[in-house]
Every structure is written in structure tokens, then in C-alpha cells.
């Protein structure tokens, strides 16, 4: 946008002028702003050339924008003062031919008020952009009402599974964020009032698709391996789900799938509508893991590549088999009763019974920041299936699992999560599995 270039040029000129000509505080601030901008440019450029991964300076520039805006305003103020002074000077010169006309600018306040009114009128007459697709709160069409009825979380309610959104489904090759948004934003949100992605969250609908900075390395790796395609781009804040793996979907608790595909393997169609050129179908999966999976056969792994190989094996049955990172001393027996409810906190409340020593595979991400408090039994937490939380108990258990960390409360747990991700060699596994390309590759994962 050439207007942006013009603003940057004016601001940069004002900064350089202030750094050279201004006195005291203003000069020091101008120099600091120029040094900060140079730092942003240098860091992002080195990251691109040396690490071969573009690190956009967008957020750094957004944080720096108030300083640029301040000097833009300063430049406008200086220009206005110069013009005002010239008008006053010219109005007092009697030798000018158009002196009478110039003197009409005095009192100048009336002139500036008229100019301000003209600017407001011009702004009012200019066409404004329409942002109806971004209205908040999002609407609740029949499809969202159905999903909320099936999945919505409320304090004290039982966890019933998650929503997965896979669009567009007609791509045989790699997808990307723009193709995904072309359906969920330009079709679903614009025409139905809800994108069935981020807009599902206000209605308490838990989702598999993630956006922003909450995705952990193990979750990213698992999703890229089983729900992504070779050659797809991704960013710090986003990645798309472009294919469907029924076995892993059931394992992570996918109950409902929104897609423009005519069918989903293992899915039962429960709703269909159309939004512009895109279909919207909702499919229900049965036999999903909502915390009751209690496998008895363990397979120990030490790297993510080994975990992917085991999960892909046709002999892997998520209800009977589990992947662990350390041995379990006692023989496992299947639990015969298990429920998971949710509460504020966030808190998971697990109740289960077993004839002996059992392991529950909870469809929630494991972290060293998870803390378990037992009201009954002596449960222990452990990572299973690369990304999930395993709860070991004997005979019966009633436990609360919370996620907590902070400066004065287990501040090292996130560092332990980082170390575990590095020890699992996630980058190598994704590169070997063709879910990271050379373009993405760097010594650590791109977050």
C-alpha cells in the first residue's frame, strides 16, 4: 500500500531530523527508535539467511508502531506550525497583490475549523469496508446448535469428545491456511454466521483444530504426522488439518467432524447444508476415547519416530495397545468403569474402577505442569502415545487433574516439557516423515 510507504517515509524523515537537530530528550528518543528499528531489521534478516526460516517482524513492528506514530504526529504538527506561521506572515504584508484574500485567513481558527469539517465530510462520504463476516459474537446456526448439544462443555459435565474441521477436502495435494480460510471464513462464517472453527469456542465446543500459540511440540508433531500432508506450509500460530486418520481421530477423542467432503471413513452423517459454493456436513464417530480406553499391552519407545511407526502399525489397537516412554512394573488389567468430567480451573475429574493395576489413556495433552490430587487411591500421571496423558491407578480412583505453573509454583515444568520434546527428537521424525521440508528445517522446531 503506497499510503503506508508514504507514512513510513514521512516518519523516517522526522526521526532522522530529530536525531540530528533536536535537543536533549527528543533527540535521545529519536535515536533509540532508529536503533530499535535497525535491530528488528537485522534480527529478521539474519534469521532468514542463517536459519533459513523467515521470522516475520510483524509483531515486533506492531510493538514499535506507537513510536513511529508519535513521530508522524510530530511531523504533522511541525508542518502545521510552519504553514500557520507563513499564513500569519503573509496576511500582514501589505505589498502582496492578494493581501485582502490572504487576510481572510485571519482569524485562522475559522479556517482550520472549516478544514476540519471538510475532512470529516470527506471521510463520511467515502465508502467504508464491510466486515460483517467478523461480527462478534458469532451466530448459532442449526449446525452449531447440534454440535453444542453433542459436545459443549459446562462445569460438572462429562467430556464427550471434540470437533474436527477438515476443509477443503477436495485437494489431493497440500493445503494451506488460505485454502482453509477460503471455506471457513468466506463461506461458512460469511453465509452461515459461524466459521465452525474459532467461532465454535464461545459455545463451549472443544476443538481439535488449533490456532494461535497454544500448540505444544508433541501435539504439533502428532497432528502434522496423521492429519497433515507432505509439503504443507505452516506458521508459529497456525497449521491446517487436511486429511483424516480414523484410528488416531478416535484415540484423541474426535466425536464430530465438520467437512465439505461427501463422506468420512467410519463417520455417520447427521447434518448437511450448503454455504455458497461449499457443502457443510457433520459426521459422528462412534467408539471414541473419552477417557475409558484402558490398554494392557505396552510398547516402549525413546523417539518420536518410533512412536509414529508404532501408531501407524496395523497391529496397533488403541483400546488394547499403548506407547510408553518408561516401563510399567506391574501387569495391566483393563478398567471396567471410567468417566472424565470437567470443571473450572481448568480441572479434569477422573473416576474409575479396576480389578487390579490399570492404565487409562486420557484424550488430553500431557505436560509436566499437570498436577494430580487424589480423593481416592494413589494415581500417577505419565506421557503415553507421544502426546496423551496416562493415569495409572489400582482398584479404584477419584482424582482431580489441574494444569498449573508460575513464578512461585513449579516454574520449571515448562522447561521439562521442552527437554522432553528435544529428547524425543521431534524435528528428525517430522523431517523423515515428510511433514517438515528443508524450508522449515532448523536445529529446533519452529516455535
SSE map:
Layout: H1 2-21, H2 24-50, H3 58-91, H4 99-103, H5 108-125, H6 142-151, E1 162-166, H7 177-192, H8 217-227, H9 246-251, E2 254-259, E3 267-275, E4 278-285, E5 297-300, H10 304-312, E6 321-324, E7 337-343, E8 347-365, E9 370-376, E10 380-384, E11 388-403, H11 413-423, H12 426-432
Parallel strand pairs: 1-2, 5-6
Antiparallel strand pairs: 2-4, 3-4, 7-8, 8-11, 9-11, 10-11
What does this protein structure show overall?
By secondary structure, this protein is an alpha+beta fold. 39% of the residues lie in helices and 20% in strands. The chain is built from twelve helices and eleven strands. The chain has helices at residues 2-21, 24-50, 58-91, 99-103, 108-125, 142-151, 177-192, 217-227, 246-251, 304-312, 413-423, 426-432; strands spanning 162-166, 254-259, 267-275, 278-285, 297-300, 321-324, 337-343, 347-365, 370-376, 380-384, 388-403. The strands form three sheets. Strands 7, 8, 9, 10 and 11 form a five-stranded antiparallel sheet that branches. A four-stranded mixed sheet has the order 1-2-4-3. α1 packs across α2, α1 (2-21) crosses α3 (58-91) and α2 runs antiparallel to α3 (58-91). The longest helix is centred in the first third of the chain and has 34 residues, at 58-91. The radius of gyration is 30 Å and the shape is elongated. It starts with a helix and ends in a 15-residue tail after the last helix. The model is unreliable at 442-447 (pLDDT under 50).
